[in-house]
């Protein structure tokens, strides 16, 4: 019998890290072979199951990513941009599929993934849920059907510990709206209203970020014109939707050629 694909989770103690550990351990399609945390983190050296407050899982948290990646078929990485760039090089070296959920990466950061994608499969998306990826397609379609008498605003809400804005999801939705309209998002994006801003520019795509409490992730795409508004909405109430998508991507990546992919490729949307 062939062994199930081995998965390493980076940022293992994080909100997503812990959800990913649970998701992989409960799956009958993959096995957990590693858990990585940053050097100096108190969980390093502890069994990941016990560190999470449960039974031992036989996987000790390490701060040596390459050693862990070498034993794995895939790395699922929801950490921070600098860490993700380091992991991309190491996953390519280990020829492991690298699933990147990390957001807040700059265009320069994203360009640095290109050489890694020549050696290994990379799947990257600002949101790994089926619902949001479907919403990008709906957004594109609605934006293509309406002219710029409809003002597009993207409103995102997240918990009070989120460090980046706009969210990765909001940017995906903005890209989809811009694509539907046949414009480049960089040319029409309005991200920072404060003070005497002047009236809204026709054709702009606006972004609004709300931060508070324990909101998992909510996104509205509003098309507003005189007399009516259309609002497309996604609400995530549990991080398992992201973790399930990420595991699906890790398994899908096993049969792909090296290159950079996104969740639309994984989901066939
Ligand atoms: N694409 C998607 O579907 C989703 C993406 N995210 C993104 O995932 C990222 C993480 O989110 P959370 O889990 O909420 O954050 P968090 O702050 O709870 O967890 C991040 C973890 O990464 C660890 N980390 C940082 N640098 C590291 C390094 N060099 N080596 C190993 N571990 C390192 C931290 O110690 C921490 O445990 C964010 O960018 C967030 O926006 C979150 C949810 C869904
Ligand atoms: O940081 C989060 O929590 C989330 N981040 C992703 C994003 O930036 O869009 C996805 C999700 O909304 C949760």
TrEMBL record:
Q: What SUPFAM superfamilies does its record include?
A: Glyceraldehyde-3-phosphate dehydrogenase-like, C-terminal domain, NAD(P)-binding Rossmann-fold domains
Binding, NADP(+): 38
Write down the top EC class of this protein: oxidoreductase
* Binding-site residues for NAD(+), renumbered to this chain: 11-16, 37, 101-103, 125-128
* Alphabetized UniProt keyword annotations: Amino-acid biosynthesis, Cytoplasm, Diaminopimelate biosynthesis, Lysine biosynthesis, NAD, NADP, Oxidoreductase
- Tell me which EC number(s) this protein carries: 1.17.1.8
The reply to whether tRNA-binding figures as a keyword in the UniProt entry is no
Residue stretches making up the Dihydrodipicolinate reductase N-terminal domain = 7-128
Catalyzed reaction equations: (S)-2,3,4,5-tetrahydrodipicolinate + NADP(+) + H2O = (2S,4S)-4-hydroxy-2,3,4,5-tetrahydrodipicolinate + NADPH + H(+); (S)-2,3,4,5-tetrahydrodipicolinate + NAD(+) + H2O = (2S,4S)-4-hydroxy-2,3,4,5-tetrahydrodipicolinate + NADH + H(+)
Q: Which InterPro entries match?
A: DapB_C (IPR022663), DapB_N (IPR000846), DapB_N_CS (IPR022664), DHDPR_bac (IPR023940), NAD(P)-bd_dom_sf (IPR036291)
Family annotation (NCBIfam families):
dapB
> How the protein assembles, per its UniProt entry?
Homotetramer.
PANTHER family reported for this sequence: 4-HYDROXY-TETRAHYDRODIPICOLINATE REDUCTASE 1, CHLOROPLASTIC-RELATED (PTHR20836:SF0), DIHYDRODIPICOLINATE REDUCTASE (PTHR20836)
Q: What is this protein called?
A: 4-hydroxy-tetrahydrodipicolinate reductase
């Amino acid at each position: 019998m062939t062994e199930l694909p081995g998965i390493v989770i980076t940022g293992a103690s994080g909100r997503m890290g812990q959800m990913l550990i649970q998701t992989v351990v409960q799956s009958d399609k993959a096995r957990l072979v590693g858990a990585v945390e940053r050097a100096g983190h108190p969980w390093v050296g502890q069994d990941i199951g016990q560190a999470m407050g449960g039974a031992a899982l036989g996987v000790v948290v390490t701060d040596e990513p390459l050693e862990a990646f070498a034993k794995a078929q895939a790395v699922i990485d929801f950490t921070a941009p600098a860490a993700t760039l380091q992991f991309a090089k190491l996953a390519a070296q280990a020829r492991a599929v690298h699933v990147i959920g990390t957001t807040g990466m700059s265009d320069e950061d994203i360009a640095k993934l290109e050489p890694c994608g020549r050696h290994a499969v990379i799947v990257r998306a600002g949101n790994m849920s089926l619902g949001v990826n479907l919403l990008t397609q709906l957004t594109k379609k609605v934006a293509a059907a309406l002219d710029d008498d409809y003002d597009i605003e993207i409103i995102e809400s997240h918990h009070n510990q989120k460090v980046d804005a706009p969210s990765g999801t909001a940017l995906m939705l903005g890209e989809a709206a811009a694509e539907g309209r046949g414009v480049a998002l960089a040319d029409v994006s309005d991200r920072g209203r404060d003070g005497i801003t002047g009236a809204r520019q026709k054709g702009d795509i606006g972004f609004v970020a709300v931060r508070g409490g324990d909101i998992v992730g909510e996104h509205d795409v509003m098309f507003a014109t005189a007399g009516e508004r259309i609002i497309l909405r996604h609400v995530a109430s549990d991080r398992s939707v992201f973790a399930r998508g990420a595991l699906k991507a890790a398994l899908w990546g096993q049969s792909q050629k090296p290159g950079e992919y996104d969740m639309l490729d994984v989901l066939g949307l």
